Amino acid sequence: MAARAALDIPDGSYVNLGIGIPEKVAAYVPEGREVIYHTENGLLGMGPAPMEGTGDPELINAGKRRVTAVPGASFFHHADSFVMIRGGHIDLCVLGALQVAQNGDLANWSTGAPDAIPAVGGAMDLVAGVNTIYVITQHTTRTGEPKLVESCTYPLTSRGVVDRIYTDLAVIDVTDEGFQVVELSPGVEFEYVEERTAGELLPIPDALREVK
Amino acid sequence: MAARAALDIPDGSYVNLGIGIPEKVAAYVPEGREVIYHTENGLLGMGPAPMEGTGDPELINAGKRRVTAVPGASFFHHADSFVMIRGGHIDLCVLGALQVAQNGDLANWSTGAPDAIPAVGGAMDLVAGVNTIYVITQHTTRTGEPKLVESCTYPLTSRGVVDRIYTDLAVIDVTDEGFQVVELSPGVEFEYVEERTAGELLPIPDALREVK
Amino acid sequence: MIDKRVTSVAEAVADIFDGATVMVGGFGEAGSPIELIHALVDQGAADLTVVNNNTGSGEVGLAALIKAGRVSKMICSYPRTANSTVFPELYRSGRTALDLVPQGTLAERIRAGGAGIPAFYTATSVGTPLEEGKEVRTIEGRDYVLEYGLTADFALIKCLRADYHGNLVFNKTARNFAPVMATASKTTIVQTMEVVTPGELDPESIVTPGIFVDRIVTVDNPALESELVARGVSYPCRSGCRGTRWLQELPSIFPTGPM
Amino acid sequence: MIDKRVTSVAEAVADIFDGATVMVGGFGEAGSPIELIHALVDQGAADLTVVNNNTGSGEVGLAALIKAGRVSKMICSYPRTANSTVFPELYRSGRTALDLVPQGTLAERIRAGGAGIPAFYTATSVGTPLEEGKEVRTIEGRDYVLEYGLTADFALIKCLRADYHGNLVFNKTARNFAPVMATASKTTIVQTMEVVTPGELDPESIVTPGIFVDRIVTVDNPALESELVARGVSYPCRSGCRGTRWLQELPSIFPTGPM
Known about the structure:
heterotetramer, A: alpha/beta, ten-stranded mixed sheet, three-stranded mixed sheet, globular, C: Glutaconate Coenzyme A-transferase, three-stranded antiparallel sheet, 23% strand
């Protein structure tokens, strides 16, 4: 999924990668493209993790793991970092999700369980401010429940913000008509995906199919 | 006037000096006091003017004259500069005035004349944000009109902000009861000042007189 | 003469009072002023409202302060972190309240508090449970919530290098919330690795001008939170040792002396 | 490959369109991007709304653009400066409108525009004529006016040194409005004295990160506005010379070549 999402990141983009699988996208960006990674705790120009046991404990990413800084990087404080996010300067953000609704609503910060400690971090700021929002997620939960849904039952992160979803089964755009499959994973049939999706799922349009 | 005002600037203060006579205050701060000057165009730690014909045309004060930077100075952008002003971090500001009312209202940016080009600069931000506002002004206009008035007739810079006024005739505090003389210039009688003041003017209290 | 140095972390935090609001710098361990926080644990002030992005980890630093029962309310964006066990317990038992604020809104509210901006509008949290109870306003066709500036009585922050006028520079992503917290607090207390003479820091590169700083204390060899947590250390240690010689009194755990 | 360099000031400003809003850096001559402004005079875009603290001086730089009749509206705090004669004439004749904004409010409105803050409250201008027509709100007992974020189509700014990713550092008080204007404009165009390779600028000291910058053009020996004004020079010169060789074509005034 991370590798597939990486193909869609344009050369020259400023990108924020969420914690978890989205972080792995950086490793798959095709040769020849230059992408600059932002981490909301105050670094533009984030590089890969340092060798195990090295690095600076005060050079970390939003997931609080040690990272490096590439040539041309800059450090800044938190308010300035969110100027980049809230002000619409970050081109693209790749996030995880608990649920995505067919109208683009995203839930990715809380299951709403009564004993859960609520924790939101920068997720709401990112989806409110970044121009293009990609989601990477397993197509269903561990217990087989659809994560692509008609409308979210978990507390929302924001309304109508998701542009594209990369799952283990397909690449799916959020459109006015519903979930639009644009690509199926190798060996996966449309009907198989449809059964595991709770919202309106549209098959790959013929025009798109012929190009492939 | 500038010399007298300088006596009242406490050691360790962060001070913004307005354009004109207020600028001269810096030259009179008593030996042994360390005062740090702020200029709203992005410098904390402003030093005196450089020697004629030297200096950097991009190291200037709010009056657009060349200045220097003292050891420990810092440069910052305009929004950060007004964080210092609006956020209440500057201890004291010395400004010029067209009129001061006995309730502390200040008018110092426009005569309201119909053909005047209005220009406000940072005056409204300074009086809204700085903790203590001193005014330096001639006691009357060139034509002999009082500049200390019952209420301002010129457009206001802000309401109820002036703490103390240094004129060629006296040092006067703005109090709930009106203009309170705290010091008369050498050889000046209270009645002489009173005749040239339009608002309520209170003589030096006995207690204060005895201390002197 | 402007000289903001104080001689010890104990002196630096001596006047923090019960019921105070305290902003604490750091994002995870990066920029966490761990020695100032431990001095505050020793000092004893209680019923504190603490502003930090997280709630600390293990039983040192901010987590030690929470564990000691001194924090009646946390204002933060992400109280759930790996190794963050202290806060969840107190939160679930109702002894520590939580005001959850999105990270960018938290940073901007602190910046606004320092900038004399009492309130501002942002699109963050619109249409979510965190919008509840807030004024929503449509500006040019988009909905925004009204958020208020946040100020504090004290800020505790950590920097790399300071001059004794209080000008500060930071280390990499340890900068995070510290510069805005310094602007938003009545009294800003800084622990620094090194103090230099005014003029030694490049005036073009100073991140926090001295006007925002009140006290500076040198902690030239600060503890590393992640290492302490990995080794299961608590503050005070389980046999009660505390103060600046705390780590030295744990020779079996730290045979090479202080970290 | 990220390389934001363009080869000439003419190319840098080529797409500025009639009716555009253009933020122009500089406080007086400090930070004024005079060569970019002259390129804009030559380019011909008209009906511009210009945001700058002042209105230029003499008949070069911003004053030249105003004199050429290209500016239908100025948004500024202080249009009245020594040697500022061009704007007053056009203002009095009604050909250039003026939106007067207090300096700190101007800076904060630009910062808000760049930060995705559509509006904020400030005490500045409360109780004055500049409050007129604005919403006033009482927050914790004090009155504040509502001010809106300000954005632009283009920013023209000047810096000391850039890398070709667009990271910028500035010279002393020439920094002024440039960093916030860079954040608030769709297209930020920078003239720099020098371009270096990414990595050559200290990442702790970069003032404007490259994310806010779109185009960089090297002007290694920019003209000094105050000197031009003192010598009574106009742009274009009175015999019509213009472009980057403008100054060289004035040998009698500048016998030593370009300044």
